[in-house]
Specification:
Length: about 300
């Protein structure tokens, strides 16, 4: 019994010392962990605040830069408009200048936020491959736009017929050509399809030829009708004498005699001449008793009893 007491008496100081050291270690580790966590939170807060300030500055710079791009583009276009550059090229050049300025603005904004230019360029290059594959059609339109600039099949203000639409060319952008139709619709035609398709430019030539098909009854005298038509053409000062107007009997139809009239005028007068001559022909034929034809069917009745 005495030996057990002596054993426990000698063991207790060692146990007490061990517990004391363990407690000190736990307390010390807990204090250090709290300190490290607080330092980490403070570091994150500082970085978040710094990033927030940079984003705000980048946003403000974007607003200012967007206004400056508008002013710079307007100034450049004033200078360009004083030159004799093709109107199509002016339209494309405006878009190119804006695109370059916006790319520069984007680079400056990334530097303000803290993204290095090298990293940004590598990101753009890697995205460019995927985006280029996805936008292959747009790249064709871009190439088509440059082909139109080089070949110049039309210019702004021309009236064209292409891709089953017709209208006046309003603008030529990098990817589309803007057409204003006769019924005031704005139509965007992709440059790729436009440059590789058939284009009819109705404004490129100074002179245009009108053609009328005038139909009369078989009972009418062709020479008289021709003389009346010649007089109508001669009285209209907008119709040119060179090239000389042409009048001829074109076709003998089932219910009418068709007479073709061809006459030249200046391109701006084309449609006014066409409609005015139609109106004059109608009035003059009625005045002189020239009858217009209409579909007729002659029915012959056979008396079978009489034949018998």
């Amino acid at each position: 019994m005495n030996m057990m007491s002596v054993f426990f008496s000698s063991l207790m100081p060692k146990v007490t010392e061990t517990l004391s050291k363990t407690t000190e270690s736990v307390i010390s580790h807990s204090v250090w962990s709290d300190f490290s966590m607080n330092a980490l939170l403070d570091n994150w807060s500082a970085k978040a605040l710094d990033l927030g300030i940079k984003i705000i500055l980048a946003f403000l710079f974007f607003i200012i830069g967007k206004y400056l791009i508008k002013v710079i583009t307007k100034y450049f276009m004033k200078l360009i408009n004083r030159t004799r550059i093709d109107p199509n090229f002016k339209s494309v050049l405006k878009n190119v200048i804006r695109a370059i300025l916006y790319v520069g603005l984007l680079v400056v904004m990334t530097n303000i936020i803290g993204i290095k230019s090298v990293t940004f360029a590598a990101l753009i290059a890697s995205l460019g491959v995927g985006v280029g594959m996805g936008l292959s059609g747009q790249l064709q339109n871009l190439a088509g736009g440059f082909i139109i600039l080089i070949t110049k099949p039309f210019t702004i203000g021309d009236f064209i017929v292409a891709q089953n639409v017709e209208g006046m060319v309003q603008a030529l952008s990098l990817f589309h050509t803007v057409i204003k139709s006769v019924d005031n619709k704005t139509i965007y035609i992709p440059n790729g399809a436009l440059s590789s398709g058939v284009i009819s430019n109705l404004s490129q030539e100074d002179l245009r030829r009108n053609e009328w098909i005038i139909s009369v009854n078989y009972d009418e005298d062709y020479e008289k009708v021709k003389q009346i038509l010649s007089g109508i053409i001669a009285k209209d000062e907008r119709i040119l004498t060179t090239p000389e107007p042409f009048i001829a009997l074109k076709q003998l139809n089932d219910s009418s005699v068709d007479i073709v009239v061809r006459a030249w005028s200046k391109t701006p007068d084309l449609w006014n001449v066409y409609f005015d001559v139609n109106k004059t022909v109608y009035a003059e034929f009625n005045r002189q008793g020239i009858e217009f034809p209409f579909p007729q069917l002659t029915v012959h009745a056979v008396d079978k009893n009489k034949e018998a």
